[in-house]
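Recap from last week: sequence in, structure out.
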Amino acid sequence: MSTLPKIAWVGLGIMGSPMSENLIKAGYQVTGFTLEQEKLDRLAAAGGSAAGSIAEAVKDADVVITMVPASPQVEAIAYGPDGILENAKSGALLIDMSSITPQTSVDLAKAAKDKGIRVLDAPVSGGEAGAIEAVLSIMVGGERADFDEAKPIFDALGKTIVLCGPHGSGQTVKAANQLIVAVNIQACAEAVVFLEKSGVDLAAALDVLNGGLAGSTVLTRKKDNFLNRDFKPGFRIDLHHKDMGIVTDAARNVGAALPVGAVVAQLVASLRAQGDGGLDHSALLRAVERLSGAQL
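Predicted structure tokens:
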């Protein structure tokens, strides 16, 4: 019998499915729940167990991991008679890897403590590719002892794993991450349109740019998206729109000015309003193309 903790995984989307599968590969017993049957079938095919409800998934789990789109979904699966807090055993560790507001994480930790459940907020960066390759950056908020206990699990999912402070700190750092990523993608998109309209070999230009100070993980990961106009979602505009709302609201609360971030947040919102919310966030290129006269 394995001495590894039993894991319940709630939320098997673009990120959650490959992440849960990496835990199975690492030898963990994973029981999953999500609303899509095909995702449950995929988990079972990978060696996990499919549950019919949140309560069934979490009842025997030592660790419960959640990966859902936003704060309302976290609250929906955590609270109420059918939720995690009412059905997980006392002493369990709840690791929320969703990207949500810092306050939602703080409130969840307080509510869970009353049930004898410990909580870490542990959002990730790296997109679908990082999830598949188990090279995610994981920013964590919570108690040091709980972080140390969870570290072997995090090691099966990512490469850069840092405890950033108390509850909510992981979400604050993730908000800053999303600000940087959005501004970076926007800058890359503007450069792509500028280069193409100037008649430059785009592939050659992006290669040399990525080898200098303009290089970035964003450009490395998204270069082919730009070159091929391939906007299959690794991280959807809809979700980045949500995240830009989180960072602009959190910044306002602490008195931090985000002049460039505010503009990019509006560009993300405009792209979503034009029907591109389901595309990858590299589709910010489409917004620049429209502003530059292209008919898309």
